[in-house]
User: Which sequence fits this backbone?
């Protein structure tokens, strides 16, 4: 899937934006803020439905949390500190206070299960709130987005029943469906995140500037 490339799918009366992202991706966090700012400035925002779809950059990440900095150093070497510093600088401009020294690296499958649960139980608004809280936990406050009790508190912040959310996470509910969605993303050609799919027809890859997202929203709204 390439930028602004057509993908299979039908167009509905309301513009639907499916955002493929991973909670472990700082660029997805930046892209979320940029896209939301574009949507707020878009005249047809009331007719846009935004849904978050799962993707895992590191499906083999451990279930037990480890330090983000140590993990990134092992993966990329000494230059990883400079990478984080650059991301933190860009995040500051988007109102994001990255704290990579406190951040924890952990498998994100259960976080994606919670996002699917939030969509089913509370709709797109609840899912968006859970998404924001997950990023904040992962990158700002040293939270463990693989811990069910912490995920239940995030669900509560989004207006969902924390006990029901934790019971859901403690079971295997939603696991097969989320993994199937991740496989489906790869079948569609999603190779990096964030990827934004508009009306099932056009895909935009990357955390583009707000002005770019605004242009894309306008182009899709006026496309046949």
Assistant:
């Amino acid at each position: 899937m390439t930028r602004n490339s057509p993908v299979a799918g039908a167009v509905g009366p309301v513009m639907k934006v499916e955002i493929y992202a991973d909670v472990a991706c700082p660029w997805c966090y930046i892209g979320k803020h940029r896209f939301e700012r574009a949507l707020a400035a878009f005249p047809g925002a009331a007719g846009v439905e935004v849904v978050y779809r799962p993707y895992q950059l590191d499906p083999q990440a451990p279930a037990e949390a480890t330090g983000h900095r140590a993990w990134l150093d092992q993966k990329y070497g000494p230059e990883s500190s400079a990478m984080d510093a650059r991301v933190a600088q860009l995040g500051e401009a988007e109102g994001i206070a990255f704290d990579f020294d406190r951040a924890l690296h952990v498998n994100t499958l259960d976080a994606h299960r919670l996002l699917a649960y939030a969509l089913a139980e509370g709709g797109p608004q609840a899912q968006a709130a859970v998404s924001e809280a997950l990023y904040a936990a992962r990158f700002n406050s040293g939270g463990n987005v693989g811990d069910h009790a912490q995920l239940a508190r995030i669900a509560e912040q989004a207006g969902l029943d924390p006990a029901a959310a934790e019971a859901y996470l403690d079971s295997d509910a939603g696991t097969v469906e989320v993994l199937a969605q991740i496989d489906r993303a790869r079948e569609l050609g999603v190779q990096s995140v964030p990827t934004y799919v508009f009306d099932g027809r056009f895909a935009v890859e990357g955390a583009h500037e707000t002005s770019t997202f605004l242009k894309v929203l306008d182009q899709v709204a006026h496309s046949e």
